[in-house]
Amino acid sequence: MVKINRRQFIILSAAGAGVALVGHQLGQGTISSQTFPESSVNLAPLYQSSDGLLELDLEARERLVNLGGKQAYLLTYNGQVPAPRLEAKPGDKVRIHFTNNLSQPTNLHYHGLHIPPTGNADNVFLRINPGEKFTYEFEIVQNHPSGTFWYHPHLHGLVAEQLFGGLAGLFIVRGELDEIPEIKAAQEEFLVLQDFALDEGGRLFSSMHMSLMMGREGDLIAVNGKINPSFSLPAQGLLRLRILNASPSRFYRLSLENHSFYQIAIDGNTLNKPIEVKELLLTPGQRADVLVKGDQEPGQYRLLNLPYDRGSMGMMGGRGMMGRNNRDVPIVLATLNYESTVESLSLPTKLTSISALPEPQTVRRFELNHGMNPAVGMAFLINGQPYSGDRLDTTVKLNSIEDWEITNTGVMDHPFHIHVNSFQVISRNGISESLPAWRDTVLVRRGETVRIRIQFRDFAGKTVYHCHILDHEDLGMMGNLMINA
């Protein structure tokens, strides 16, 4: 494996990747609005468990759907973008009868769920070919945290393409957080953020036309399959937003005009107490639960995606790259309405108790970078190697506790995700995190070193860790992890 410097990387990336620009956005002063607002923020159909069982048929197929008033041929689960929302409780059994009617092989990954990585549970090494059927079946453990999780394809080499086509859905585990009185009284909305790149005929651009080295972004950003939908603040004045970044590469830096977010959960895991933030950064794959208080004058307030620079590769990072010609301009994602003065509910003061993990038995170090692979050309690397399905990169013991020190020596930010088990962030560049929190994805900015602590609980077997800019994962930034009993 040959490492290359920044200048070589810029030259090779610009020469080797296609650039496409689709759609348009209408400038309104310094804020970009994609098209006229749609009236509803409602999601696709809901499937809930009953008598301890969540069972459904799920079909992956290309369908003609209405996307922001435009007819689009997207990849769908059960004909919906986003996919149906699934809801279960700790202790429930889940049985999904899956049919692949795509033109490509695929599978399912249950992102953030603490379930086995083997057999017919969260097994990303399964290959379900076109026309084949497969039944996923697993049980959600009794002590599983309540939270916002999701499902999407995870067949290596096709992950970004299939997610970018629309294949993503929420998986909600109901539990203790939902029963806290103030949260139970709040109105609940689900926001699935996706971006798309369509040609004039409403067809998805093929990967060969896209800027894969940077990570593909589309010019059309949808919230629950709609463009700038509106949602209302309830009469009691407290709104709970469950937000999923289901884009393969785009970072969402969210801000709600004149309002704070009171964050209560990250990556499906409850925080100790609500944390007030003015902005919320969600990297691909991340989720956040926030409360919004109706404590401003009645009116309309825009949910904005603010600019974020996640790195650049010369020509690939400049204007003309797909989806990035407006990267310096806030974009309107949705609109919050309230028409009269409301009496705002109080916020909860305590949510849960999180204990810091004990000191680790092992410390490992991982370097994220890029380079040249003689077999495939440009590749993204972990510890100097691109992904190989035949290689075991990391072997750990069941129930052991380890620290992983992840250093990004490349030119782009990388969100790092581990399957099966959540972890705690211990430090960034040697500065300790102030409060313990559980998460499954952590942003490692270029030049940064992040230390995480993880306990490999309950389930043995083979799984993966990877960059959640999914083009980077498909291009090699992934490792195989074996958890031995």
Question: Would you summarize the structure shown here?
Answer:
The chain is mostly beta strands and 485 residues long. It contains five helices and 35 strands.
Structure description:
By secondary structure, the protein is mainly β. It has 3 domains: 19-36 and 180-338, Sandwich (Immunoglobulin-like), CATH 2.60.40; 46-176, Immunoglobulin-like; 353-484, Sandwich (Immunoglobulin-like), CATH 2.60.40. Helices cover 6% and strands 43% of the residues. The chain has helices at residues 6-16, 159-164, 176-179, 181-185, 470-474; strands spanning 2-3, 26-28, 31-33, 46-48, 53-67, 70-77, 85-88, 93-100, 109-111, 133-139, 147-152, 169-173, 187-196, 220-223, 230-232, 238-245, 252-256, 261-266, 269-277, 280-282, 287-293, 299-306, 331-338, 362-373, 377-382, 394-397, 401-408, 414-418, 423-428, 431-432, 438-439, 441-444, 449-455, 461-467, 478-484. The strands form 7 sheets. Strands 1, 24, 25, 27, 29, 30, 31 and 33 form an 8-stranded mixed β-sheet that branches. It has a 6-stranded mixed β-sheet with strand order 14-13-16-21-18-19. A hairpin with a 2-residue loop joins strand 18 (261-266) and strand 19. The longest helix has 11 residues, at 6-16. It is globular and about 65 Å long. Residues 1-30 and 315-326 have low confidence and may be disordered.
Secondary structure topology:
Blueprint: E1 2-3, H1 6-16, E2 26-28, E3 31-33, E4 46-48, E5 53-67, E6 70-77, E7 85-88, E8 93-100, E9 109-111, E10 133-139, E11 147-152, H2 159-164, E12 169-173, H3 176-179, H4 181-185, E13 187-196, E14 220-223, E15 230-232, E16 238-245, E17 252-256, E18 261-266, E19 269-277, E20 280-282, E21 287-293, E22 299-306, E23 331-338, E24 362-373, E25 377-382, E26 394-397, E27 401-408, E28 414-418, E29 423-428, E30 431-432, E31 438-439, E32 441-444, E33 449-455, E34 461-467, H5 470-474, E35 478-484
Parallel strand pairs: 4-7, 5-8, 7-12, 13-16, 15-23, 24-27, 26-35
Antiparallel strand pairs: 1-24, 2-3, 5-6, 8-10, 9-11, 11-12, 13-14, 16-21, 17-20, 17-22, 18-19, 18-21, 22-23, 24-25, 27-33, 28-32, 28-34, 29-30, 29-31, 29-33, 34-35
